Amino acid sequence: MNNPSPRRNLIPLLTGTCLSVGLMVVAIWIWFDASDLALRSEHPDVLRWAARSLAIAAASGSQIIILSLVVGRLYEHRPFHDMLKLTASLICCLSAVIAAALGLAAQG
Q1: What's the pLDDT band for 20 if we cut at 50, 70, 90?
Q2: pTM, to two decimals
Q3: Does the chain have fewer CB atoms within 10 Å around its N or its C terminus?
Q4: Could you tell me the residue ranges of all domains in the chain?
């Protein structure tokens, strides 16, 4: 009898779902409020793109969480899931680096 309890499988699913939805809500909020946030800068266009790049990083981070904690537990492991996680990870990293570079460029 090596069956894990249903509660043990439910906790990562609920945690992953809540984290993913919360991160996606933050990403959408950043995306739509980027123009308002950028008004305080000398270079509002650059800061707007920095905020939107950060929103893309948050959205792809949300996808990584949902793929790792939810989809990975509900469905059998396939190489396609690894490819999706790798792609989302690359997008998240690139977007975060671009957001940091644009944020620094907007300051100076």
Answers
A1: very high
A2: 0.85
A3: N
A4: 10-107
